[in-house]
Specification:
222 residues; alpha+beta; three-stranded antiparallel sheet; two-stranded antiparallel ribbon; 23% strand; rod-shaped
């Protein structure tokens, strides 16, 4: 009989423990269910457009403590300045007048040949001034003659000695503009002897009958 009572006590104790564990599990499940329900309610409130105040616990920002630098103020009187356009440029296009000059000013087109300008004589080919040796028949009425146009000034030379360093040989330009060929006496009494190309004879003694007076002896100074 005593053994049966002891077994009954043990069974009762085990039952009480089981009931306690079961009660704890139920409590834990109810608490979890309450938290889930609260989260769902918050989500539903957000989706409905109702504002949820989540910032009550955050510290307030002190007055005057701006987190964004102030932008510079623009004076209402300041207006953007228009960029100046180059002269003759209108709406991005260069006017024809700017290219050709003022109205009425037309570019000078030089015909081929001789031209007297500002007291100087020039020779043009395709509108370009020429320099150096020119062999031509059209200058005034001198027929076929050889002329020297100065490479530095670009104009015809008159009544002067032509340097061999520029022309390739020594020559002398007459007052008419063409160079000496044959025997020629200048206004100062100097005598020049040159071949048909206008090349003056070399310095020193010269015996020839190519010039006036038949066979003669000449001394050419430097």
């Amino acid at each position: 009989m005593a053994r049966m009572i002891d077994a009954l006590k043990i069974a009762c104790g085990m039952l009480v423990c089981s009931l306690f564990v079961f009660a704890c599990l139920l409590y834990t499940q109810d608490a979890y269910a309450d938290e889930s329900t609260q989260d769902v309610s918050l989500a539903a409130a957000s989706s409905d457009g109702n504002e949820i105040d989540m910032l009550d616990s955050l510290p307030a920002v002190p007055d005057g403590d701006d987190t964004v630098d102030a932008l510079p103020e623009i004076d209402e009187g300041d207006e953007p300045q228009e960029q100046q356009q180059p002269e003759g440029l209108s709406d991005g296009k260069l006017s024809l007048r700017a290219l050709e000059g003022e109205e009425g000013d037309e570019p000078t087109v030089h015909e081929d040949g001789w031209a007297d300008e500002d007291g100087f004589t020039y020779y043009y080919v395709d509108g370009v001034r020429q320099t150096g040796w020119i062999v031509d028949t059209t200058y005034k009425d001198f027929g076929l003659q050889r002329y020297w146009i100065d490479p530095y000034q670009g104009c015809l030379v008159f009544d002067c000695l032509i340097d061999a360093a520029d022309a390739g040989y020594w020559a002398y330009a007459r007052p008419e503009g063409y160079v000496v060929r044959g025997w020629y006496q200048a206004a100062d009494g100097s005598v020049y002897l040159a071949d048909d190309d206008g090349k003056l004879e070399d310095p020193g003694w010269l015996i020839t009958d190519d010039y006036a007076g038949g066979l003669q002896r000449y001394y050419i100074d430097e």
